Amino acid sequence: MIRKFNYTGRKKIERNNISIRLIKDNSPHPYFDLKISVSADDFPDDSELFVEAYDRSSFMRFKCGTLKNPVLPEDRHLTAIHSTDAILFRVKVVDPSAHHGRILAVADRLTSIGESQEDSKHISLLPVTYEDLDKEIWKLDFRDTGPVLILNKKIESVNVTEIVKTSDLFFSLVYPSVLREILVRILVIDDAFEEDDPELWQNLWLAFVENLPEVPKITDSYEFENFSSNHDFFLIWIDDDVIPAFCKKYMIKEKFESDIGGV
Amino acid sequence: MVRIREFNPAGIEKFKNFLIAMRETGESETSLSELLSDETYTRLLPNKIEIEPGIFSTKYEIAEYLHEKVSSISPDKKYRNVGMWTWLAAFYFDALCPADTQGIRKIGAESRYILNGDEWDRIFRHLLAGPGMIYDLHRENSIILLYNPVDETGDFLAQLMGRQEIGTNKAIIEAAKILYWDPVKKRPKRSSSPQEHKPGTLRRFVDVLQQFDLTYDLYSISGEELIRMLPVEFRA
């Protein structure tokens, strides 16, 4: 396990201080508007402000003046971004002088404002998408932004979208496995994540499971400090503490019995 | 010259079945040459683009060729037209899946021929859309990623394009070319990408980039600047 450290004291820009809105006009591509309220006093005067828009296969970058004097470029249409449904934004404050290109502050995985202001602050732990999985029913895909549950959109005999939302049988059979796979990925397989970034997907998932009743907290444990040599410890923690607690809280057995009883 | 077409969903299914049959039995009842122009399964692309069969010795060559051909398609759609890129894979099937001396073709994973989805890692798995998109992003620097035969996936491609924040960064790919490309032999330098994370090698480069990505705005620097920032192990 290679752990990432914030050696340079890079600051976090709180989501609440940024508002990004997607606007549609006559162009086939929407453009964005940005409002940022971060005190420029904490940064060098010439700190540059950048907005990066991205999805899973495309990227655009916009220089937006300085933090002290933000100036949005005239053309902010997202012409190279394919899917504006899944678009995310990253806002960076960069030091152009002393250490060329050094990031002074950043906010990542920002979504644009939708129907309500709250939409931009909501982070889904497990987004669901639908793809052609051939003979598979579901699988997890680990992306830079976190795990995504993929369902086979080619299943025609049942309404997959509805099953994900309402089926106790699906929930009871799939979600404990999903949780196990995600935790194994974070604690055993993956090679790096930054522990002091609370909005990073790995930290969000660990916070979620550590908040389950009766789950011992591991993120401040000795074993967590010595990641790579404690895989067995984590596997036992996942199997003996987390999954049983998850199943208890979400009444997995009861859900299964109740749904299978009706089959 | 042949005008580019795109498969409809039934055409993609037909091509998928062709691949399955070829993989399982080495032959298929479907004639690719007929399928490619069958109006039931294909339609002409609105953009009037013409291509010709050709012999391409590297991914770079075919990417450069196709990039120019599809340049009239809008940037957000160019490398995501599933029907078109799957049709192109069928059109160039002999190059993507060449027969060996005994006439046997080794059919690879379906995602190499059928563009499945519009996401980063899906596109670059495709043997034509992937190189096309990479060439579009990195132009001549993409040679470090696309130097090998059309039907092979190189280690540089796998290591550098697997992560979007690295794969989309022009400075990183430029730096990789400066560090690892041998312009005389026209291939990566010897021993530049062993499986181990040895000092100065490709996997160490990726390790260091992942740490740099937290600290530096790697989109605001050039490849030369990035190289100057690297630890001494990269200055051999």
How far apart are the first and last residues' alpha carbons of chain B, in Å? Answer: 49 Å
Considering residues with a beta carbon less than 8 A from a beta carbon on another chain, report the largest interface and each chain's count: A-B, 37 and 32 residues
Termini gap of chain A: 45 Å
Count the E strands of chain B.
Answer: 6
Strand content of chain B: 5-15%
- Specify the structural class of chain B: mainly alpha
The tally of helices of chain B reads 13
Mean pLDDT of chain B: 90
The gyration radius over C-alpha positions of chain A equals 21 Å
Shape of chain A: globular
What is the SS-derived class of chain A? alpha+beta
Low-confidence stretches of chain B: none
Radius of gyration of chain B: 19 Å
Q: What is the residue-averaged pLDDT of chain A?
A: 82
What's the structural domain tally of chain B? Answer: 2
Helix and strand pattern of chain A: EEEEEEEEEEHHHHHH
Query: Can you tell me the overall shape of chain B?
Result: elongated
Q: How many strands of chain A?
A: 10
Helix fraction of chain B by DSSP (H/I, runs of at least 4) = 40-55%
Features:
heterodimer, A: 263 residues, alpha+beta, Immunoglobulin-like, five-stranded mixed sheet, three-stranded mixed sheet, 6 helices, 10 strands, 24% strand, globular, B: 236 residues, mainly alpha, two-stranded antiparallel ribbon, two-stranded antiparallel sheet, 6% strand
Polypeptide structure, described:
The complex is a heterodimer of chains A (263) and B (236). Chain A folds into two domains: 11-121, Immunoglobulin-like, CATH 2.60.40; 128-261, no CATH class. Helix content of chain A is 27%, strand content 24%. Chain A has helices at 160-166, 168-189, 201-210, 222-225, 231-249, 252-261; strands spanning 11-12, 18-23, 31-36, 48-54, 59-66, 88-95, 102-110, 128-131, 138-143, 146-152. In chain A, the strands form three sheets. In chain A, strands 1-7-6-4-5 form a five-stranded mixed β-sheet, with no helix packed on it. A three-stranded mixed β-sheet of chain A has the order 8-10-9, with helices on one face. In chain A, strand 2 (18-23) and strand 3 form a beta hairpin. In chain A, helix 2 (168-189) packs antiparallel against helix 6 (252-261). The longest helix of chain A has 22 residues, at 168-189. The radius of gyration of chain A is 21 Å and the shape is globular. Chain B folds into two domains: 1-139, no CATH class; 154-236, no CATH class. Chain B contains 13 helices and six strands. The chains are: A alpha+beta (263), B mainly alpha (236). The interface between A and B is medium-sized, with 37 and 32 residues.
